[in-house]
Amino acid sequence: MSNTQTSTEIKSQAGTLSVRASTVPLVPTGALDKYEHIDLTPVIGREYPNVQLTDLLKAENADELIRELAIIVSQRNVVFFRNQDIDIEQQKLLGNKLGILSGRPQSSGLHIHPKDPPSQAPDPEIHVITSKANKKKEYENEGDISRLASREWHTDITFEPVPSDFAILKIHTLPEIGGDTLWASGYEAYDRLSPAFAKHLEGLTALHSAKKFKLFADAEGFGIHEGPRGNPENVGSELQAIHPIVRTNPVTGWKSLFVNKIFTKRILELTKDESDATLAYLNRIVADNHDLQVRFRWNKNDVAIWSNTSTFHTVTRDYGDELRQGDRVVSLGEKPYFDPASKSRREALGLKRWFDL
Ligand SMILES: [Fe+2]
């Protein structure tokens, strides 16, 4: 399969596999079982030590393998591949295929970050992750001066009305030591709630905002990219959206917590005080439970693929002024929804409820 396939070509090939729907979770076929893999914790993370993603893309049954990968990423939250030879065009192809083959809406493509205007970024569908960015200044612009390492737990681009389903990050430049990334399971975060508290939260909605990007762009003298940013609904410079705080992942059918420290500002059906207290507690579930997290120590050219529908992540900024840099592709999924008939991960897998342990 050529690396230069257009999104439309992939879509037409994937037509019969595009079955993402709220009531029909996708079931793994076992197509990747022949490859050695290690589950890194009971609830989150898997590594394939001997797989090149380019071999999956070139395989005769590439679509079957990549659809399976989309399901496994959705179930395990994040999957790691060491020392990859995948280039930027192949990374974009894989990003599109993961979404399309697992049934993302036709209106969704690859995200263009509002801070990466097409006039300035060499390839706006690639967001360069770099330690050169002045993060401290961004936070100060919105008055966020927390110095806790846990302040940056987030899910990518939840300020967009149509946020991401999958992200692929390849890190090519690393500090001598440090710069690990941590991911946390939104499924397990939901499963840590008491049934009564979970019921109270289901159906509530929250405002997500990235006003800080606009302030930063204004301060630095460049314009926000007004879009469309990978989906016709992701337009304008407001950079805010309203999403359910418990969300159903359409690939697995499992419920996930969907609020995060960076972008979620306010639960709309509660008073400000109730919202602040609730968000603080929900964020603690993610940041304080290291048994629902996985920490990855990068080597050059390692790749991580994660589900932004049901996963949180944060960088570890312990590397001083050294350069840490990589390329990220973010595929867009559907507008988040909550299906009351969906199950929690533990419920779907027949595991005991956390509350009863
Ligand atoms: Fe991120």
TrEMBL record:
Residues 39-322 form the TauD/TfdA-like domain. GO terms for molecular function: 2-oxoglutarate-dependent dioxygenase activity; metal ion binding. Residues 105-125 are annotated as: Disordered. InterPro entries: AtsK-like, TauD-like_sf, TauD/TfdA-like. GO terms for cellular component: cytoplasm. It comes from Wolfiporia cocos (strain MD-104). Signal peptide: none annotated. It comes from the Eukaryota. This is Taurine catabolism dioxygenase. Keywords: Dioxygenase, Iron, Metal-binding, Oxidoreductase. The keyword tRNA processing does not apply. Belongs to the TfdA dioxygenase family. Pfam families: TauD.
